[in-house]
Every structure is written in structure tokens, then in C-alpha cells.
Amino acid sequence: MSISEYLDAEPFREIVSYRRAGAPQDAVDFIGTPRKHPYDDEKLILITEPDSVDAGLFEFRVADVLSAQDLPSPVRADGESWPLVKLWVRKGSIGVRYEPFEVDRPRKPLGAARVEASRLVRRET
Description:
Strand order of the largest sheet: 4-5-1-2-3-6
Mean pLDDT: 75
Radius of gyration: 17 Å
Low-confidence stretches: none
Number of strands: 8
């Protein structure tokens, strides 16, 4: 499933907004666009930087999300926007990070190819 298919998925709305001053002490924050998990109602998908080639996906159990805060929605030049939230996820819980990578020999992360290319450019100049 591509990032755009996750963006078209049903929005996740079952999170309670955080209302106290300060962040929860027993949680770590993640920022992105939440979506329903495609086949597991007990999990959610958080899309980070959905308008970027570096977009990533995090998967969390809904029970581990302690709270959420709505953030200003980004808007592209063509007028399309998407919701952005800050989720506080319980420390010590297990999440899954889906990380895109370039198929190469040996395998390396997608960002590493860009860094390597920029090093080559610097050496040549």
C-alpha cells in the first residue's frame, strides 16, 4: 500500500484531545496524520510528512495512545490540506516504523543514497 492510499483511508477519530497544561510525563510525542489501520481496529497508522518523499508510517496500538492535540493543517499550493496531530504514545509500548529504502547492494536507507550523492558532488568541486 502506498502513502497516498493510506492518506485516502478513513481518518482516525477515536482519540481524546489532551487538555491539561504540559505534556503527559509518561509518553513520547509523534506528529503526523492519523488513519485507521487497514485491517486491525485495535491499531492506528500515523503518516509523517505525507507531502514529502521522506514520508513514513508508524503503527501504534490505540490503547497505547494517551492523548492527542490538533495542530494547524498544512496546505499545498493547489489548495489540498490534511489534518495534522500530535499524539502522545505511552513510553515502553511497542510501535512499528515502516521505513522506505532504496533496493541496492548492500541495502541502505533511502536518505543514505542522498547523503552519498551529496558527498560525491562535494568531492568533485
